[in-house]
Specification:
single chain; alpha+beta; HU Protein, Chain A; 3 helices; 5 strands
């Protein structure tokens, strides 16, 4: 399912316009992105938690040349599923 499918499904099931649903989804994504960029986490009880994690630096290898390259430390987004979500997909 892509974003358009999600918007269409939500609009259909809830009697809303696609434009309204798209506005809400874009707002939600913007707020999550902003919170994560500030180092905060977004917790939706039962669904899951969006957070950032530190990925430590390491030495990698260029697959074409075999040369060692340094990969610096980075911060990456992560999602941890909540119990209700885990139960729903079993």
């Amino acid at each position: 399912m892509n974003k358009t499918d999600l918007i269409n499904n939500i609009a259909e099931k809830n009697g809303l316009t696609k434009r309204d649903v798209e506005t809400v989804i874009n707002g939600f994504l913007a707020e999550v992105t902003e919170a994560l960029s500030k180092g905060d986490k977004v917790q939706l009880i039962g669904f899951g938690t969006f957070e950032t994690r530190k990925r430590s630096g390491r030495v990698g290898r260029n697959p074409q040349t075999g040369e060692d390259i340094n990969i610096p430390e980075s911060t990456v987004p992560a999602f941890k599923a909540g119990n209700k979500l885990k139960e729903a997909i079993k």
